[in-house]
Amino acid sequence: MWAKASTWWTYFRVSLEERMVYRGDFIIGVMMRFLPFATQVFMYWAIFETLQANEQPEGRLTGEIGGFTFYDLIAYLLLVTVTRAFSSMPGLTSGISNSVRNGEVKKYLIQPIDMVGFMLIQRVAHKLVYYVMAFLPFAFWFYLFRDCFTNGIPGVEIFAVYLLSLVLSFLLGFFLETCMGLIAFWYLEVTSLTFIYMLFNFFLSGHMFPLTWLPGEFEWAVQALPFQYLAYFPAAVFLGKITGAALYWGIVVQIAWVFFFFLLSRLLWHRGVKRYSGFGG
Amino acid sequence: MSIIELNDLCKTYKVYQKKEGLRQSVAGLFRREYRDVNAVRGVNLKVEEGEFVAFLGPNGAGKTTTLKLLSGVINPTSGEAKVMGFVPWKRDNDYRRQFALVMGQKNQLWWDLPAQESFRLHQHIYQIPANQFQKTQDELTELLDVKRLLNQPVRELSLGERMKMELIAALLHSPRVLFLDEPTIGLDVVAQHNIQQFLKYYQQERKITILLTSHYMQDIEALCERVVIIAAGTIQYDGSLRGILNRFSNVKRVTFQLAEGQSFEALDRFAPIEELQEPKVQFRVPRSDVPKLLSGMLDAKRVVDVTVEDPPLEEIIAELFTQAAKNQKDSSPEWLGGN
Amino acid sequence: MKTYIQVFLTFARNSLVRDLSFRTNFLLQCVTSISWAIMNWAFFKIIFAQGKNIAIGKGTGWTENEFFIFLGTVWIINAIVQTFFMPNAQEFSELIRTGNLDFALLKPIDTQFLVSFPRLNWASLANFFLGIVVVVFYANALMHDAVNPLSLSVFQVLSYIVFIGAGVVIMYSVMISLAATSVWLGRNQNLYMIWFYLTNFYRYPMEIYQRGVIGWGLWGFFSFVVPVLVVANVPARTLAQPLRESGGNRWENWLILLLFTMALVSLWVSRRVFRWALSSYRSASS
Lengths: 281, 339, 286
Fold this sequence. Notes:
The complex is a heterotrimer of chains A (about 280), B (about 350) and C (about 290).
Chain A: H1 2-20, H2 23-32, H3 35-51, E1 64-65, E2 68-69, H4 70-87, H5 92-101, H6 106-110, H7 115-144, H8 156-182, H9 191-204, H10 219-224, H11 232-238, H12 244-279
Antiparallel strand pairs in A: 1-2
Chain B: E1 4-16, H1 22-30, E2 34-47, E3 52-56, H2 63-70, E4 78-83, H3 93-96, E5 99-103, H4 115-125, H5 130-144, H6 159-171, E6 177-181, H7 189-206, E7 209-213, H8 217-223, E8 226-231, E9 234-240, H9 241-248, E10 251-258, E11 273-277, E12 280-286, H10 290-300, E13 303-309, H11 313-327
Parallel strand pairs in B: 3-7, 3-8, 5-6, 6-7
Antiparallel strand pairs in B: 1-2, 1-4, 8-9, 10-12, 10-13, 11-12
Chain C: H1 2-21, H2 23-48, H3 64-98, H4 101-106, H5 111-116, H6 126-143, H7 154-180, H8 182-185, H9 191-199, H10 212-225, H11 229-240, H12 251-280
């Protein structure tokens, strides 16, 4: 038990260090993430301006689009960026599928370590480094747009649920993408699958626009699929758009999805390894 | 005027020093420490037209760096060089049309396309007239026996075949000066031999000037009259391969085969014993002591056979390298990559 | 000159041969980039569907149909950049990392040219055609507008094409300069990301930035320092709202001047940066 913990701890440290070596790239990467956000702010600013009644051109923007005022929307987009910082897993699917393709996965079959477990540790390390580096930029943006949070910071209860749902969105993103990567055991060309995933993510996770903007016909897809938990749900919780029973029901569903993809990843891993060693790689 | 002239050529690199440990890596995010590595420190050399010169030296000695300086790929920190009257790092088009560089560890051919396509690209880049291009290509593919492979994607060729194609690509424009950086690295004995034969033939035929670096003594023994030994960024020796023995080795190996029944007791009174394997005994003595040893042994024992030989070249050179590394105090041998 | 054309054609031909030898991959790439474009279109469609009067900015003239001409223009320019420059910029930074830039430096031909064009990614050209379809479709819609029909002359269409050319020159210069920084930054995996984020600004009508200190700051920066704002704005504006507001609002002429000036300046700067980078190049071994 101890030995295992210390192996994992070492791996965690190595992952942290690995992440720190390339400082230039890294800092630039963190800063750059906010640029698209800036353009979005300006675009929506320009759009909401057109909804403005003529008499107050310079004042507060009063129009609403799909139940969101300009300020709601900015707050929403900021919060969604935070969720995405938890749930997005750049390179995870392709990393796993590549290691299956080029046989690197054998290493996990020979050594007494669990691949998915190690990938999880690695991700946690990478994300931690990211949050440390990104904290100031995030703080700056939240400060800059503090007036957009018209409801203020939510109470302890909502905030706790929000944090929980952020962590869950990390786990959901991780296990979901791991499952896609593991499909490489059966089907080597995972790229097209990743692409379909991105497509769904774009429209159904809410990281581009609030899901309430979607035409009504898509409501069932939002509810039936896990994508909203990768961006929309935590943000909506923070903004107080989801309350009462719906809030807790949402968390339960999110936990269920995490659990589902966790189990699926175990299943895919065991079946995949069996198949892999059966075919002799 | 010599075709290649180097005067006090120096190249210093700054290398980022990575620290061990998490705390140090975090610190590395914000401040980095660099250290100077003197890859080439004051090289003076003259090469005449038509010479085939070998650069010999341990990893990190500055051989490749020197070749890169001469090809104008990198700029020197100080010093001068002229090749065919051009300053290489000015990268004059007239200069670049007259030389070629082949690197055994890198390839310039299009990986997914047949070598033929890369050759055609070279034709356009070097503005080789069509009939001359065809003639040269035919001749080279004939000599290297790769004509049938011209239309096969490069990625499907073996290492040896690929190296041959690289050589052809480099020679299509009939360069006057050719730089070869470990052209036989990783090749099997047959491929190595083929390439040696080809280079020898081609150099004698065309009278071009070639500078070659290699780790393989066979390459150098087979090809070069003149050897330049570089270690720790400076030239340690410049002369013939045989000359290395005269200059650096004053030791001989003397082997006696004694007749049956001779005692092997206390032979070390004559000289230090290198190896004793009855009925043979081998001594290692300074050259000047050879006559004394011979007469002493012949007087004392019944000797069936005697051989006097030089120690193997590799051994002398290895010793030379070790010595050079010792002499060099402030720079370390494991500098970034190159050799 | 003849050499350069011949070499370029050989590059184009070799790339096509290679692209077509991986046919599945080629088709997949076409489908992917077209899908991205359609997603992009759907996103704005969703926004415009939220209300009748929605436009990108008040009094800017970028209502739905005009904006989609803008979007189509962005696709056309993007497709050109991704076909001709993107793979090469990435390759360039890889050449620096592996030391294979050595070979380019040996050739008796302009190194910047040799590095800029060897690999063309023909699959990315799919969006070029899609962009044309979109531009033609929405221009046609504008021309049949019941209230204020647009009339286009041959001259306008020609200048649209020339302006796109000038815009492409700017994009190329920014990209090659960015790629050249690999000489100092070492591994530059983020190159594509930086490029994406930088060019993110050019994907919107420039009017949206003309407000507030930060907005004007961004507008200035991306008009004069990294001049990507004029790239799509000038051609799109020429086609979508050619001198529609005839009264006084003639800053279009200014923009055209800016576009051409910036195209020349950025090309010159890119050559300087490129040469500077080469002088710092240290040629990694093996």
